[in-house]
Structures are given as C-alpha cells and as structure tokens.
C-alpha cells in the first residue's frame, strides 16, 4: 500500500488513460498475490481509499470494477496456481510469494477516479463481444464496460505485462 506518483502510468510511456498529471490529487497502490483473499483485500482497499478521498458514494461502481479487474488479473494474467498432486501424505502448505504479482493502483485527478491493474501476462483482455454468450465466465469486462465511464488496456514496454484501466467521473 502506498501513495507514490503514478508508477503504472509512467511505465506506459505516456499518460494512458488521458490524465493531466497536474490535476493528480492522490494515488494509492496495493500489491496482490494469487491468494483467495486478494479480491476482498482489493475491495476493502478501494473502499478505504475512496472514503479517505471523501468519495464513498462511488464505491459500488468502482468496487465492482476493481473486483472484476483484479479477478481477471489473478485468473488470466497469472494463470492457475500449481496444485500439488493429491496423496495420503500430510497436506502441503501453500507457497508464499514474497513479491506482489498483481498491482492495483487508484488515482484521483480532476473530476475522475481511475483504477489500473497491472499483471505480468502478455495475453490481451477479451471483451464481452469476443466471448461465447453461453459461457459461465468471461462477462467481467462487460461489467467493467457497463459500470465505468471508459476502460482500456496497454502493454507495458519490454514485454513486462499489461495494465488494464477503468475511469469513473466523480463530478
């Protein structure tokens, strides 16, 4: 958790989504690992950040979108965690990852909040129009599209993954 500049946007080489850095009034960052509680941590972090920015009325939409983007990053950006083969031996404790694999950044600037989720995958996000309508999963980006004022993605330089972002009007 932090309040540094705009590390994800800086890595993109240009402000994307379009952000006038002169109007940036707050950032908050949370690193996440591939654990079941990570999506809940991201939602709680978002709620607390929006309350601190005196924007709690935006939590329903922003929290839903953060949940979808983080879930997608953990599920598709990292792939499925390795599951040890079942045996009659004692259960193996999950391997703890020291450094975050996915990063959530919330940014507040003139009249909007932007959430950005970075993951190490080079796989492109698949919009709802690319998904099978009968599929039980894959509707997350459709929700992002419905609840945000705009969203997009951008590959990071040097093949270091991607950032998926969503913007919300606050004024």
Automatic annotation (TrEMBL):
Residues 33-166 form the Histidine kinase/HSP90-like ATPase domain. One of its GO terms (molecular function) is ATP binding. Keywords: ATP-binding, Kinase, Nucleotide-binding, Serine/threonine-protein kinase, Transferase. InterPro entries: Anti-sigma-factor_SerPK (IPR050267), HATPase_C_sf (IPR036890), HATPase_dom (IPR003594). CDD domains: HATPase_RsbW-like. The keyword Signal does not apply. SUPFAM superfamilies: ATPase domain of HSP90 chaperone/DNA topoisomerase II/histidine kinase. Pfam families: HATPase_c_2. This is ATP-binding protein. It comes from Streptomyces millisiae.
């Amino acid at each position: 958790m932090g309040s540094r500049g705009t590390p994800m946007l800086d890595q993109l080489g240009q402000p994307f989504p379009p952000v006038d850095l002169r109007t940036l009034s707050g950032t908050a960052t949370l690193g996440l690992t591939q654990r079941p509680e990570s999506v809940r941590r991201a939602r709680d972090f978002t709620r607390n950040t929006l309350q601190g920015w005196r924007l709690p009325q935006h939590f329903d939409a922003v929290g839903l979108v953060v949940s979808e983007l983080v879930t997608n990053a953990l599920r598709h950006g990292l792939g499925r965690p390795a599951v040890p083969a079942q045996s009659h031996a004692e259960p193996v404790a999950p391997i703890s990852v020291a450094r975050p694999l996915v990063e959530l950044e919330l940014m507040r600037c003139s009249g909007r909040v932007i959430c950005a989720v970075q993951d190490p995958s080079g796989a492109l996000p698949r919009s709802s129009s690319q998904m099978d309508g009968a599929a039980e999963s894959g509707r997350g980006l459709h929700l992002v599209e419905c609840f945000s004022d705009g969203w997009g993605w951008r590959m990071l330089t040097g093949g270091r993954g991607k950032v998926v972002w969503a913007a919300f009007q606050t004024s």
